[in-house]
Amino acid sequence: MGRIRRYIITAVLLSALILSAAPVSVCAQPETEEAGQAETSEEGTQAGTDGEELDEAVLKLEKEKKKSYETAPETNEVDGWPEGPKIYGNSGIVMDMDSGAVLYAKQPDEKRYPASITKLLTALVALENGEMSDEVAFSQESIDILRSDYASIGMRPGEVISMEDAMYALLLASANEVAYAIAESTGTKMGGGYETFIQEMNDRSAELGCTGSHWTNANGLHDEDHYTTARDMALITSALYRYGEFQTIAQTLEYTIGATNLEEETRTFQQHHKMLMPENKKYYKYATGGKTGYTDDSRTTLVTTAEKGDMRLVCVVLKDDGDAYDDTKAMLDYGFGNFTKLPLAGQKLPEEVVSCKDGDAYVVLPKGLELKDLEYETEVTDEKERTGVLTYSYGGQKLGEAPVILTPEYVEEATGYSTRPKLSEDTQTGQDKEGAKKDGTFAAWWDRLPVWGKVLAAAALVLLLGAAVLVLRARLIRRAKKAAKRRRRRGRRRAGRNKSGAQKERSGQNNSGHK
Prior knowledge:
By secondary structure, the protein is an alpha+beta fold. The chain has helices at residues 2-21, 42-47, 51-70, 118-129, 140-144, 163-171, 176-189, 194-207, 230-240, 244-250, 324-338, 408-415, 431-438, 441-448, 451-514; strands at residues 91-96, 102-106, 135-137, 160-162, 254-257, 267-270, 287-295, 299-308, 311-320, 339-343, 353-356, 362-366, 375-382, 387-394, 397-406. The strands form five sheets. Strands 2-1-9-8-7 form a five-stranded antiparallel beta sheet, with helices on both faces. A four-stranded antiparallel beta sheet has the order 11-15-14-13. Helix 6 runs antiparallel to helix 7 and helix 7 crosses helix 8 (194-207).
C-alpha cells in the first residue's frame, strides 16, 4: 500500500512540475505542439507506467533545471556590461528589433528544437509571397499530418478560407493543418508546391543572417533535422514585426472564422500567449505579440515582442523547463531598465567618417557607458561612391550600425581605389613618369580641401590669371607707344633730310642760270 501511495504522490508531483514548466493554452482542439500540453504527449503517457522511472524522470528534470538556471548568460561575462537575470531556459536572447543590438544572450547560438514558434517564419514567408485576400485550400495531405492531440481547428479536405482567416488560425490557435495549407497554397502560387515553400523558409532565414537553422516543415512538428537558435528566432521575429498585419493579429485575443464552402458552423479560438491577456496574472503591459510552442523534445519555447518608450525588443527562450513567462518578464525588464538609445546625429564620429547617411541611426548604450567607450568597425561598401557601414559593439556584442560617407584617404587605404585624377601612361615619358610616381602632394592636398576651400582656390587662380593678363596688356601697350614714337622720330628725320636736299637742288639751279 505504501508503495502504491508513493507512486501516486510521485505521479502528482511530476504532473504539477510539467504543468509549471509550460504555459497552458486554450484552443479549439488539444494541442501537443503547443506550450502546456506535456501531459498529453506520448512521452508523458509512457513515463507514468512505472514508479521508479517516474522518480528517475523527476530527479533528472530537476537536475537539468537547476543546471540550466545556474548557467549564467554570456553577456554577464562582458566587463562593464549590466548583469542580466538567471533564467531556466537553456537558451535566451533579448534583441533590439530595429538595430539588431543584442542586450542579453544565453547560449544564443545553440541549436534547439523550435516547436510551434516555427509558425512565425511560416507567417513571414506567407506575407512576403502572398496577399491577405488569397485563398488557402486544404488538401488531404494537410489533414493527414494531424494526430488526435495536435493543435487543430478541425478543417476538412476541400475546404477553402482566406489567407487572413488562415493567419489568425496559424498565430492564435497554432493550428497545424492550417500551417501546412498556407505553405502548400503559397508554394503553389510561387510556382511549385509545399516543398517550394519549405525551401523558401530556409532561403529567407539565411538572407536574414540566420546561421544555425534548418526547416523541414511549416508547423514545427518534431523532426531531428528541424532546428533553430535563439538568435535566429530573434532575427526572424524582427523581420516579421515590420508587417502591420502581424502586429494586429498577434494582439488579438479572440477570432472567429465564419462559415466556409463545406462547413456552416463558425470556428472561434483564442490567444495562447498569457502575457497578452489583461486578465491573466502573467500579463505584461509592454507585450505586443509573440508565439508559444511546446513538444516533448523541444520543451517550452516562447517568443515575445514588447515596446516601451522608443525601444522595441524581442525576447526568445528555448528549451525552458521552468516558467517561460517569468523568464521572459525578467529578461524584458532587464532590457528596458539597463539600455538606452543614443542617436548618432551630432555625435563625434571616427575620423574616417564624413557623415551619416541615415539621420535616424542610433546605437543602444548599456548603462554606465558612453559612445567613446564602444568599439567600432568601418567597412567600405562602395569605393566609387565612398559609402560604407559603421558598426558599434562592446565586448563582442553588436550595439548598432549606420550607413556612412567615408573620406577618400580611408577608401584608398582600405581598398586601394583612388578618386584622385591620374595621367595616362601614354602621356607620361621619361622624367614625367618618374615625377608622377614621386609627386602626389598637390593632388592629395586638393582632395583634402573642402568644397568652400576649392572655390576660394579657384577664385584666387582666376584673379591671378586676370592680373597677369592686365600686366601683359600694359606692357604690350607701352611697347606699342614706344615703337610709334620711334617711327615718328624717324619720319621727321627723313622729312628734314628731304627738305635740305631740295633746297640745295634749287640753289644749284639758280647758280647755273646766272652763268
